[in-house]
Design a protein that fits this description.
The chain is α/β, with parallel strands linked by helices.
């Protein structure tokens, strides 16, 4: 019957490439694969991002994360002004936080899970941590519910750190202190997984990669 597959398989609404990208990234975020990419993220990714932002970076409040019990997973809820918000946040956590960390950053499925270039960026820059995707469309509502279920399951591990933008998309308004309406998924995560919830605020990052890298050496926010 029409629609039966959609009701039975949460991946049925995805295209062939989206299903491939999701299954591959899901595999890379499990077991020994996740352990390997987490080591790469700490040894390579966090260091070059730290070097590229070291002259501009000012971090406040990290001691509050260190004071949290190590047997509770963390849910970071952050504002979203730049493409690079969570790359910098991840670099800080991996270099400075004393507790074990396995990072997951849910992203909008459009782009990172719809093209080979997006998939490659997830690997080369995110070490597969931009997972799971959320499409935020009526046709893929069942898949998005499945993706939230994946996050809830991941948050059963005390080493899990999930970084989420409750606004759902970049806020390009002129005032960084005025937020977009939050999306409902973060409430479900908090209610069902019961992580330690940590608010994060990022200011000063732009959206032009070349200009952002140059600002570290020539002066910037």
């Amino acid at each position: 019957m029409p629609g039966t597959a959609d009701r039975g398989d949460p991946l049925a609404s995805l295209t062939a490439f989206e299903r491939f990208a999701f299954r591959l990234t899901h595999r890379m975020n499990r077991g020994r694969w996740k352990a390997l990419w987490s080591r790469c993220q700490r040894a390579i990714g966090a260091r070059w991002i730290g070097l590229a932002s070291s002259r501009l970076l000012r971090v406040h409040g990290l001691e509050h994360l260190d004071a949290l019990p190590a047997d509770r997973p963390l849910l970071l809820v952050a504002n979203h002004r730049s493409f690079f918000d969570f790359y910098v946040i991840a670099s800080v956590l991996l270099r400075r936080l004393r507790r074990p960390v396995r990072l997951y950053f849910p992203v909008r499925g459009r782009y990172f899970y719809q093209s080979p270039v997006g998939l490659l960026i997830n690997f080369l820059i995110g070490w597969w941590s931009m997972f799971p995707p959320l499409f935020s469309s009526e046709r893929r509502r069942r898949f998005d519910a499945h993706a939230l279920g994946v996050l809830i399951e991941l948050l059963r591990d005390p080493a899990t750190v999930v970084g989420l933008h409750p606004e759902g998309r970049r806020n390009l308004g002129p005032d960084p202190y005025q937020f977009l309406p939050p999306q409902p998924g973060v409430g479900r995560l908090i209610h069902q997984a019961r992580p330690a919830v940590v608010p994060v605020f990022v200011a000063g990052l732009g959206n032009d990669l070349v200009r952002q890298l140059a600002a570290n050496w020539l002066g910037g926010e």
